[in-house]
Amino acid sequence: MPQVFLGLGSNLGDRMKYLQDAVNGIPDLVGVSGVYETDPIGGPDQNKFLNIVAELDTNLSPRNLLDLAQMLEANANRLREVHWGPRTLDVDVLWVEGQEVNEPDLIVPHPRMRDRAFVMMPLGELAPAFLEDWNDPEEGQVNRIADW
Fold it and tell me: For this structure, is 114 an active site residue?
C-alpha cells in the first residue's frame, strides 16, 4: 500500500484533544510524530500551534484523503472565517507515494511543505529521507514538546 503523510495542527481550545481525536479518526495509521509547539506563520495575531505528522499505509486516493481531512476538520468544528487564521484543527495532505495532483483545491505533494519547519521537523521523525536536502527557513520557533 502507498505511504501517505498528513500534517495536523491546532491552535484553538484544547489543542491536544483536537489532535488526539483526529488521530483516532485516521484509518490505516502507521505512526505519529512527536508533538511540536510552533509560532504561527502569516495571518493575524494568534496563539501558538501544536503540530504533528501522521503516517498512513493506505489505498485511499488523494481525493479521498482530502475528504478525510475535511471530515476530521468538520468533526473538530473548524470554522474558515479568516485565511490562515486560528483553527481548532487543520489537516493537510502532504505527500502520497507515487502520486502527484495539481487541482484547484488539492496539490500533492503539498506545495509549501518544504518551506515549513513545523511540517518538515515532525515529518523527518517518520521519514528522515525528506530532510536530506532540506534547509530550515527559520521562520518562528518550532519546539518538540512531547512524544506522541
Answer: no
